[in-house]
Amino acid sequence: MPNPPPDGPDQPQTASGRDSTVRGITIRGIADGGRFARGRGPRRIQVVVDADPSDLLEVKLRLTRNDRGRCTYFSGMTERFRPNRKGHHGAAGGHGFGIGATARVDYLLPARLPRGRYVLDVNAIDKAYNRDDTRRRGGNRIVFHVD
Could you give the CA distance from residue 144 to residue 18 in angstroms, rounded to a whole number? Predict the structure, then answer.
């Protein structure tokens, strides 16, 4: 009887036998399509990343904001919103930032989010460098508004 692959019998394998599974992501506390009253924008970003045989390398966030046509992204380094790259609007113009390698993330923003339309993208990268760059609303991407 052949031995199961090292990552377990149910794990997808590449031709080289390497794990090719992408982790599942759940964003909590902010619903996709949610609306917050002025002054009541969320301050916490909570994420749960599914277990994976290749172990977690890094979780990345990208939070972008559009307020009356002005596109900005949240910088994890400066902890404030910065203008998107010239000529780039919306979520694609923002930069992501790493927040560690834990399966349960509880990131506290410096202040409640002000008025605007927000897109929060989350990506988990495992030690086999698997990542899911396909954005799925309600999954690893949520869109919400602060009035």
Answer: 37
User: What Cα–Cα distance (Å) separates residue 114 from each residue in 5, 37, 57, 90, 120?
Assistant: 50, 10, 32, 17, 15
What are phi and psi for residue 80, nearest 5 degrees?
-155, 165
Total structural domains in the chain? Answer: 1
Q: Which domain range does residue 142 map to?
A: 29-146
pTM of the model: 0.82
pLDDT in tens, 18-56: 566 777 899 999 999 999 999 999 999 999 999 877 889
User: What CATH number has the domain bearing residue 94?
Assistant: 2.60.40
The two three-digit tokens of residue 74, written as one number: 């949240």
